[in-house]
Amino acid sequence: MHVDFEDLGGLKYKIAIRIEAADLARHKARLARAYAHQVNIPGFRPGHAPLDLVARKLGPTLDDEAKENAIGQAMRETLESRKLKPSTDPSMEIKDRQDDGSFMVYVEFESFPTVDVTDYLGVQIAEPVLPPIGDVEVDGALERMRQRIAKFENKAEDSVGHDGDMAVVDLTITDPVDDSALAETRESRVRVGDDDEPVKEAGRQLLGMKIDEETSITGPVGKITARGLTKTADVADQPQVSETPEGEAAPEPASRTVKATMKVKRLMERKVPDVDETLAKRFGAESVDDLKAKILEGLMAERAEARKDLLKEAVLNALVAANPVEVGAETVARLADAAVEEAKGRMLPGMTLEQRAGIDLGIPREDSEAEARQNLARMVLLQTIAEKEGITVSDEDIESHMQILAAEHHVPLPKLKAHFDDEKLENLARTLRVEKTIDMLLRYAVIGPAVVQPQAAVEAPAETQPVADPEAEVSPEANP
């Protein structure tokens, strides 16, 4: 086997390998021995026929597999000798076939960078700037908890609809032209004041309404209500849209105009519970003071986690700054595409791959590539450090992590383990190895005084819930 190696720059490489006839013959003989027991040759017991007869029986299939194995072995040996790990799918071309079966194979690929990491122990970073936590923050968290568990209760019979109330109505949707029914009359809930279901500004139409009063409004049908209309409604005349210029998003078709008739059956107002002992006990506290103490404890725990996350980010930024990593353009583009597809999968789980392909998340390409470039540099550095420091993940590490996951998600451990196939276990092991490496870097980091910058303070989470609500229920605000 003869190999010519060419560095094309930008972590791109080209390899020219001559696969000799002797290499092919060796692989064919090995494969023939492996398949001998599976081939039926008249006059011979399985596994005892001459290898040349076995090879002749298998024919071109054996030749192709021998060729693939010869190329694969040559590539592995070449990559191992050069310490290269392809980061893109190699492009391959076979040329110069000779009468004896030998040929040349040309392979181009991009590789992950190889780096020699230095100055990674004792990294100097600044203490993160975090907002203080005191009575104001505790009261704010308590108020958010009260708002989350607020419930709608029936108003008096002679009440009128106010902004924020919930109206239970008998809803009829008809065609505004001939008044033909577009959906069966049904009970529905409409938020008084700001609801655009079943039609735009339906909520405003209910302001001041009383029980047993009826009102009608004509307007564009809401997206939720439109799903339940008859086919007649779905084929409404729509304005024709001219061909969209390449690169521009096509405008959405106009909503169909329908008539909504609503007869008020009940009016409900949102009741926020008082801050008293009953509220405290609902959240597992003995008193209001005890509840506030638990909230403070939860906020402090969240603050500690936020501090740790910011310290990790600072360590990684310092690590990359001290050890610049060259990354290949094709690899960055591939990772950026993969990240976008992963985001689509999380945001649009009900769509097929074909449907997702037409969705634009609105993320600028330069931003997604910049993030992919940063993540790739971090990954390479962390993997290199893990190898230098001999950081590994044991079966006990994986078992402990799964126990934590099972407890957090209230799932039996055997059921959780059933979801982890070999590939997922490998991914989990890699993730845990990265986390152990970052934790090591953080233990050795030197944390200096905080550097306060104008408008750079980290805000506390807007929806903190340090105490779980055992009676949490689905909000009644959604339209059925």
Q: How far from one another are the termini?
A: 70 Å
Second CATH tier, the architecture of the domain at 2-110? 2-Layer Sandwich
- Strand-pairing-aware structural class: alpha+beta
CATH top level label of the domain at 2-110? Alpha Beta
List low-confidence stretches: 232-252, 456-480
Helix content: 40-55%
Largest sheet: 5 strands, antiparallel
- Kindly report the average pLDDT value: 87
Features:
alpha+beta, five-stranded antiparallel sheet, Alpha-Beta Plaits, 17% strand, 43% helix, extended, Chitinase A, domain 3, four-stranded antiparallel sheet, single chain
Task: Note down, in words, how this protein is organized.
The strands form 3 sheets. Strands 6, 7, 8, 9 and 10 form a 5-stranded antiparallel β-sheet that branches. The chain has a 4-stranded antiparallel β-sheet with strand order 1-2-4-3. Strands 5-11 form a two-stranded parallel ribbon. Among the domains are: 2-110, Trigger factor ribosome-binding domain (Alpha-Beta Plaits, 2-Layer Sandwich); 151-234 and 253-271, Chitinase A, domain 3 (Roll), CATH 3.10.50.30; 325-376, no CATH class. Helix content is 43%, strand content 17%. β7 (166-174) and β8 (181-191) form a beta hairpin. α4 (135-148) packs across α9 (288-322) and α10 (329-347) packs across α12 (365-389). It is α+β, with helices and mostly antiparallel strands. Mean pLDDT is 87; it is low at 232-252 and 456-480.
What's the topology here?
Elements: E1 2-9, E2 12-19, H1 21-35, H2 51-58, H3 60-82, E3 91-95, E4 103-110, E5 124-126, H4 135-148, E6 151-154, E7 166-174, E8 181-191, H5 202-205, E9 214-220, H6 223-226, H7 231-234, E10 257-271, H8 277-282, H9 288-322, H10 329-347, H11 353-357, H12 365-389, H13 395-409, H14 413-418, H15 422-444, E11 446-448
Parallel strand pairs: 5-11
Antiparallel strand pairs: 1-2, 2-4, 3-4, 6-10, 7-8, 7-10, 9-10
